[in-house]
Amino acid sequence: MHTPTAPPRDLVLVGHGMVGQRFLEAFHERPRPGWRVTVLAEESRPAYDRVHLTSWFSGTTDDELSLCAPEFLAEHGIDLCLGEPATAIDRERRTLTTAAGRTLRYDTLVLATGSSPFVPPVPGHDLGGCHVYRTLDDLAAIKADAARARTGAVVGGGLLGLEAAGALRASGLRTHVVEFAPRLMALQVDECGGLLLRRKIEELGVTVHTGAGTEAIAAGPDGRVRSMLLSDGTELDVDLVVFSAGVRPRDQLARACGLPVGARGGIVVDASCRTADPHIRAIGECAQAADGRVYGLVAPGYAMAETAARQLTDGEGEFTGADTSTKLKLLGVDVASFGDAHGATEGALDVVYANSRAGVYKKLVVGADGRLLGGVLVGDTDDYATLRPLLAGAPLAVPPERLLLPDRTGAGPAPLPDEAIVCSCHNVSKATVRQAVADGSASVPEVKRCTKAGTGCGSCEKLLGTLVAGELAARGVTASRGLCEHFTHTRAELYEIVRVKGITAFSRLIDEHGSGEGCQICKPAIASILASLANGHILDGEQAALQDTNDHFLANIQRGGSYSVVPRIPGGEITPEGLITIGEIARDFGLYTKITGGQRIDMFGARVDDLPRIWRRLVDAGFESGHAYGKALRTVKSCVGETWCRYGVQDSVGLAVELELRYRGLRAPHKIKAAVSGCARECAEAQSKDFGVIATAEGWNLYVGGNGGTAPRHADLLAADLDRATLIRTIDRFLMFYIRTADRLERTAPWVARLDGGLDHLRDVLMDDSLGICAELDELMRRHTAAYEDEWAATLADPRRLRRFVSFVNAPGVPDPAVRFTPERGQIRPVRVAGPRLEVRA
Amino acid sequence: MPADEIQLAHRGTWHTVCRYDDLLPGRGVAVLLDGEQIALFRDRAGGLYAVQNRDPFSDAHVLSRGITGSRGDIPVVFSPMYKQAFDLRTGACLDEESAPDGTPARLLVWPVRLAPPASR
Questions:
Q1: Superfamily holding A9-115+249-313
Q2: Could you tell me how far CA A575 lies from the centroid of its own chain?
Q3: Conformation bin of residue A449: beta by default, left when phi > 0, alpha when psi is -120 to 50
Q4: Better-scored residue on pLDDT, A764 or A459
């Protein structure tokens, strides 16, 4: 039997920009079998991200900017006609004509034609070298011209104008910004904020002209832009001009078919985004919204797109206006503006914090009733995420100045009311976040998954973290002591698991005792445990994948991606031949050399490809790895001792050499430094080391738990007047006990400081065997010394291990071209900057 | 029989860059194509990823030397310089929105595949 089906309804969308694409997505959230959708696009490519257009100059490709996957169109049967704009609408017949001469019928027409850049009609505005900044084609044209230009000017100092100025500057052009208003970003920031913004931008070398109009643009002999004349009489030599002086709604199609438009342009629509014709809707920058405004931001455009889609499918939803708060970084300067930034509300008052030395300006606009109405932040927008949600909430619970002052020590973050919106992308309130924690979410990722908060622009992530942590603490949930998200065990517990179960592979440990794939915290920590216990070569098998890059290449990564090389010089004692060898190698490979704090020589500037050749020569000359790259014993520093020093009472160099050779290659939770002084004058600074030995007339005093660095700590005297054998046995046990029980990246100083029972307990364990583990600790050290081999000699002997030392897997022998050096004080130093860059954030 | 080869799509063409066996599970290598540096990774399950080798936070071409792992369900590489995590599938930085130069902290990504049998 024949089943009558209604013919599909025709929906035609004119314009495939960000808003048009958002409309298609919202419309197709569920299958729409009853509709046939056609899209007419003016440009030759599908919708792309115009908000991040400027990132195209720093390498983001067309494909990456694209917002419309080809599968999307195919999946929903959307007919996208690229390069075929609409030219006329016949409302009576419900048809439209395209530039290709086709006539399309529609049941519903959606106009999303966006806006066009306003180009002031000054003489010369259409010369070669003049551009607008709207499409990828515009950017390509600017880039092509910028390649042969020296100086560029941007007409317009608003948001987009400053973006364009950043692009010109990054292309290596001297850059001017010409703004008609008395300040930059006049729409978003106030006078003081504008002044600070101007100063920061001028510090970057951009010349700013405010209160200046463009009078004329003049051509050179080649018929292209040569100079421009400003209304204040300034004449600028420029060979490239970008107009960014605002946009105008593209409402011509609607005007031509008699649809009403606003006084300043924009197709008039109601709250359901419908025009005067019930079959035609308009969304985005081409429309004048129900509140009489034409919005030039993407978020309101998206909201209109969603409204129109819902109206067509469910007959619901309305758009009556939007928040135009913005937070962005322009030319490296943070700027945010929210709510009533200019204090236009009747009775509004300002609270201002200005610190031009630090480059920070903050203003809050507060209503007469104490409610927060809006604000401006320049130079530091960290508070945006906490301030914006307070907009139009209850009167502020704290004096507004407390919200602005940089040092709020003790005050804590501003208390947010429950209804405050934490994530504005997904409209998630503080109450929703609290509920998620109450329902069992115990981490930020879990809260994100169940509320969608923080999964849009991400600007609320920090606030979300604070809220979730506070909420967890309030519920008495103790923070996990686990190593990281993949292991709930501490390092010491994992050490015991590895030891007791005899585990030799990370895969087995994470599969049996952890979750996920690991990270930069647990992988090196477990590599260290495996190395401490198993003594295999750290570049073999699965262990290789766990190592930090330093351990992976047995060298220390430095600025720019080159490596430094440190051969072991036990006790700081070196022969003239050894010095000459190091000098020759450094000279032949063009390395920078420096004497380290640990009495050895560091050679900088080696490329990955150089490392095996450098080490071939070092190993041939009798040098070994110094483990400068590892969490392992570094050096045992020494003074010259009784052999030469007239005050010395013992052979400190001899003992230092013996200790360094005994513990070399010993992997630990953190690096280990040591020293031996030949008398109480303490020239080797042994009391600032993990373990330090000071000679006495009767023997040796042993100090432990000392530290230099950020948290200096004097070592504690563990035992006095030890003979050499007892001294070494005690150090053996001290190191092994530390390796076994310390946390990840815990130096001996905090470890000793937190030991229950303190130094007395340590003495009991190490010297009186109160835990009955000394035999085991001694055995572990015996295994370490017996199994020691030089990692570099072993690497050079094995072609498989050597294979990783190439810069490029598909071009062995080609050195990394990005590693470059420049001379300084007779040696090399890294070149800091590759290519043009914007300001580095403080 | 030759080992499987890995191919990267660069500027519209598939390029064979190395053998599958050249990759260590959980570790990366760097690839040079037309002067462009690309970091290529293989995870424990055998999945392949290709992202730009330049670390936007240090301006050094070193991401191929980072440690890989996971954050939640997201496969990531950690910069060996300052340890930011990047989503290997999309190139997005999970720790910071923008690089020190103000550009979005996002790596370029390249399509990568095991060479289909027909190309051998």
A1: FAD/NAD(P)-binding domain (3.50.50.60)
A2: 47
A3: alpha
A4: A764
Contact A559 B58 (CB under 8 A): yes
Average pLDDT taken over every residue of chain B: 88
Instruction: Please tell me whether residue A534 adopts helix, strand or coil conformation.
Output: helix
Domain assignment present for residue B54? The answer is yes
Per residue in A64-75, pLDDT (tens digit) is 889 988 788 988
Distance CA A806, CA A86 (A): 56
The annotation status of A639 as a binding-site residue, yes or no, is yes
Residue B113: enclosing H or E segment and its boundaries?
strand B112-114
Architecture in CATH for domain A553-630+806-842: 2-Layer Sandwich (3.30)
Q: Residue B78's domain is classified under what CATH number?
A: 2.102.10.10
CA distance A529 to A16: 56
Give the distance from CA A45 to its chain's centroid: 30
Q: What is the number of domains present in chain B? A: 1
DSSP state of A104: E
DSSP state of A417: P
For chain B positions 36-95, those within 8 Å of chain A (CB to CB) are: 37, 40, 43-44, 52, 54, 58-62, 65-72, 75-76, 78, 80-81, 83, 85
Q: What is the complex's ipTM, to 2 decimals?
A: 0.92
Rounded mean pLDDT of B50-77? 93
pLDDT at A324 over 80: no
Write out the two tokens for A775: 């035999």
Tell me, what DSSP letter sits at residue A3? P
CB atoms within 10 A of CB A312: 21
Instruction: Kindly state whether B20 is in contact with chain A, defined as any CB-CB distance less than 8 angstroms.
Output: no
Class of domain A417-479: mainly alpha
- The whole domain housing B40 covers 5-112
**Residues linked to residue A353 through DSSP beta bridges, in sequence order:** A362
Give the number of beta-carbon pairs within 8 Å between A and B.
146
* Domain boundaries along the sequence of chain A: 9-115+249-313, 119-245, 417-479, 491-547, 553-630+806-842, 631-784
